[in-house]
Amino acid sequence: MNSKQLNFFIVKEDYGAIQNFFDDNFFATIIIKDGGVKEVISYSVAENREKLFQVFLSRENQPNIFFQPLEKKPFFYIDILRSECIEFSLGGFYPGKNKELRSGRLYFITKYFIEGNELVPKSDAFVKQATLLLKQFEKKFLVKSKHLSGVLLSKNALNWVNENGAKLNISGDRFVASLAN
Fold first, then answer.
1. Where are the alpha helices (DSSP H) in the chain?
2. Are 56 and 31 a contacting pair, CB within 8 Å?
3. Across-strand partners of 167?
4. Which class for 164: exposed (0-12), middle (13-18), buried (19 or more C-beta within 10 A)?
5. Are residues 87 and 56 in contact, defined by beta-carbon separation less than 8 angstroms?
6. How much is the pTM?
7. Which of 26, 100, 112, 175 could form a disulfide with 166 if both were Cys (CB 3.0 to 4.6 A apart)?
8. Could you count the other beta carbons within 10 Å of the beta carbon of residue 170?
9. Three-state secondary-structure class, residue 124
């Protein structure tokens, strides 16, 4: 399996501009319809009414979405392995953890194995569009701190880190605010 990803830190104040960016680039933000039926619906990250931490991005004119059933339940999820979509993990603050800013990511698979060890590439058009989206996302929303080597953050997330004296944990997946704040 081959994949590409971009890891970063954002906060909910970034969601509106991010949703506009996806819309402007003709990527629909989608989730599985309530009840887990084999149907996707548009979703607004800006509103995030369900307080989701993961959604998917699909090119509006390329709806190659595959579903996978959950074991022992009549519920489906989007099969990221075969689907031409990008997984968008928002990260941010989990309930009851307002002192921990978790990393988010954009992730997609470019090639995957099927039975018999055959490597199946996704369409060139999807891979090019998804790669470009990750590059443009980084350029538009993320900055590097001179004090945090290799860490990408939105300006709002960097402000939160600085204002709260937050430190990156050893695994690099979250910033933890100083207990003094």
1. 15-24, 124-141, 155-163
2. yes
3. 176
4. middle
5. yes
6. 0.90
7. 175
8. 6
9. helix
Give me the mean pLDDT over the 125-142 stretch: 96
Mind giving me the DSSP string for 68-79? EEPTTSS-EEE-
Contact yes or no for 104/92 (Cβ under 8 A): yes
- Whole-number CA gyration radius for the chain: 17
Q: Quick check: 47 and 31 in contact, CB under 8 A?
A: no
Q: For position 163, what pLDDT does the model report?
A: 94
Nearest to 57, CA basis, from 105, 122, 119, 12: 105
Closest CA to 78 of 127, 124, 33, 43: 33
DSSP state of 163: H
The per-residue pLDDT for range 28-47, each reduced to its tens digit, is 888 877 666 667 788 889 99
CA 43 to chain centre: 13
Q: What CA–CA distances, in Å, run from 155 to 66, 158, 167? A: 35, 5, 16
- The b-or-e profile of 145-155 (16+ CB within 10 A means b, else e) is eeebeebbbbe
Contact 74, 28 (CB under 8 A): no
Asked if 84 contacts 64 with a C-beta cutoff of 8 angstroms, the reply is yes
Tokens of 52: 């989701």
d(CA 31, CA 124): 24
